Amino acid sequence: MTAKNAYNAGIMKKSGEAFAAEFFAEENQVVHESNTVVLVLMKSDEIDAIVEELIMGEEAKRNPTLVVEDRGGFWWIKADGKIQIDTEKASDLLGKTYSIYDFLVNVSSTIGRAYTLGNTFTITSELMGLDRKLTDA
Amino acid sequence: MALSTATKAASDALGANRAPTSVSPQEVHRWLQSFNWDFAQNRTKYPTKYHMANDTKEQFKLIAKEYARMESVKDERQFGTLLDGLTRLEAGNRVHPRWGETMKVASNFLEVGEYNAIAASAMLWDSASAAEQKNGYLAQVLDEIRHTHQCGFVNYYFSKHYHDPAGHNDARRTRAIGPLWKGMKRVFADGFISGDAVECSVNLQLVGEACFTNPLIVAVTEWASANGDEITPTVFLSIETDELRHMANGYQTVVSIANDPAAQKYLNTDLNNAFWTQQKYFTPVLGMLFEYGSKFKVEPWVKTWNRWVYEDWGGIWIGRLAKYGVNSPPSLRDAKKDAYWAHHDLFLLAYALWPTGFFRLSLPDDEDMEWFEANYPGWDAHYGKILREWKALGCEDPKSGFLPIQWLIQNGHQVYVDRVSQVPFCPTLAKCSGSLRVHEFNGQKHSFSDDWGERMWLSEPERYECQSVFEQYSGRELSDVVVEGHGVRADGKTLIGQPHVAGSNLWTVEDLKRANCVFADPLAGF
């Protein structure tokens, strides 16, 4: 069974006429609100370790909807709600100083509202600044 | 000694806002915000019909020091990889020739987009009234400069290390004759920097960056890797590491106007126009580059589009904003039709006009054709049939004198250029959305291919006056136009554009002249 957030989940499993039928179905001619977020991480020594240990480890335990896929040059990660990475934990893992700005060196794309606070990087489906205020501390 | 007013003000401010006791960048960022200028009465050279609130936040809390350190690490990794490891591995010549040609278009065109985005984000810096928002836009200006250099470097690298440098080295000299250039300028230049400042932000950040950079800069790296290109992922994924901040800038622009009554009145129209403007060009061009400009296919373009444009951008950005009055773009239905068919339509025309390009195109082989039919049922009977006929008539052979553009005209398939998007179309062959319509204004005739562009033109006809190549060169012989438009290689006789990617049997100016192809303005008949 393909996880619902997988790269080739849902309609993406279909091909040819079956794909076209769903793609052009009347109900799919408008956008549908989604509570998911997508995070694209460019591969590097640090990111590969963070993905394996932190994202596929404790973050996947916290959020079982999280899916990680290897797409060649990058890791493609999708989950319901939010994904959080604590760079202090990454620092411990890597054995060197590793700040939020070091992490941002390899964050290639985000779909959702991404923000930093202290040592934590968050991508959330919440509308930050509208649903909830962005804070400084 | 008495303190000057300025020194006293600074001392008082420091007294009220103690300097951080640690060097945490985020603490420094917070501290710096307390010294902001008051931009509430911001005067700008670039006004907007919206009122931008002055308390909007910047999501990544950048300070100059951390920004510079972060970006220098990115550059060190990129150039280190390219100039050391990849050169040693001879990466430039391991790229499949079809993909090497695709990168002539992708990187040269993206460079133009990045260059214009410098101006666009500087304009938004001037228009915004929230200090943190200005900080975000200012970092974006610097990012766009970096990206312009990076795109230039990709083509420079390929020029030195790829077996066919023509087109990587100086594509811009062909900009007057290549039909793809003008549409690119419409999305990458005009859409980003002309008109209302917030409307430009919607074009650049909310649609261009949050939506189309994902296929253009992220998904493209999957295709690159599959086709032996290790250069593009190294550079483009690094470019995209800045784009998430730009997407946040676009989102915060929407946040800053969310409570303005003007947003209720204008935002949905601006969003729909921006979506249509961007998709009208990117949908067919990216699909064509990926599918026809590769040997090894990752997935059908329509699936890439469905994931990044429809499900993720549509659902996670636009769908989530519905409760704040943002609607699904009404042009989405037509955009989906384009996602399925428009790139096949465009390939027919791009191939038909190959002498005007700065890249080589190649016909799909039997394996490609089987793949197209399996993924786009009906492709073979419509497009495959024509491409096979062109091949049989010798379209690849310089001795044949056969040009597909002449075949199209002789068979009653007139090619027009949509005035608003500048995208060429052939109404009798196109399976994408839309149909031909012609208007006359100020003594000039204008062709359009769809409702959405036609509406934009009807409300601002003076904004869309760019001539098509058919109007510009009406009555001129094609080889003369190509020579005049610098479409010839350094030997002075071989064309840059070619209808195949083989290293020999290249078309020359003389071969082209033998075909005696003369441009005609299709609108002259109306």
From TrEMBL, chain A:
<dbReference type="GO" id="GO:0004497">
    <property type="term" value="F:monooxygenase activity"/>
</dbReference>
<comment type="similarity">
    <text>Belongs to the TmoD/XamoD family.</text>
</comment>
<protein>
    <submittedName>
        <fullName>Methane monooxygenase</fullName>
    </submittedName>
</protein>
<dbReference type="InterPro" id="IPR036889">
    <property type="entry name" value="mOase_MmoB_DmpM_sf"/>
</dbReference>
<dbReference type="Pfam" id="PF02406">
    <property type="entry name" value="MmoB_DmpM"/>
</dbReference>
<dbReference type="InterPro" id="IPR054955">
    <property type="entry name" value="MethMoxRegMmoB"/>
</dbReference>
<dbReference type="InterPro" id="IPR003454">
    <property type="entry name" value="MOase_MmoB_DmpM"/>
</dbReference>
<keyword id="KW-0503">Monooxygenase</keyword>
<keyword id="KW-0560">Oxidoreductase</keyword>
UniProtKB/TrEMBL annotation, chain B:
<protein>
    <submittedName>
        <fullName>Methane monooxygenase</fullName>
    </submittedName>
</protein>
<dbReference type="GO" id="GO:0004497">
    <property type="term" value="F:monooxygenase activity"/>
</dbReference>
<dbReference type="InterPro" id="IPR009078">
    <property type="entry name" value="Ferritin-like_SF"/>
</dbReference>
<keyword id="KW-0560">Oxidoreductase</keyword>
<dbReference type="Pfam" id="PF02332">
    <property type="entry name" value="Phenol_Hydrox"/>
</dbReference>
<feature type="region of interest" description="Disordered">
    <location>
        <begin position="1"/>
        <end position="22"/>
    </location>
</feature>
<dbReference type="InterPro" id="IPR012348">
    <property type="entry name" value="RNR-like"/>
</dbReference>
<dbReference type="InterPro" id="IPR003430">
    <property type="entry name" value="Phenol_Hydrox"/>
</dbReference>
<keyword id="KW-0503">Monooxygenase</keyword>
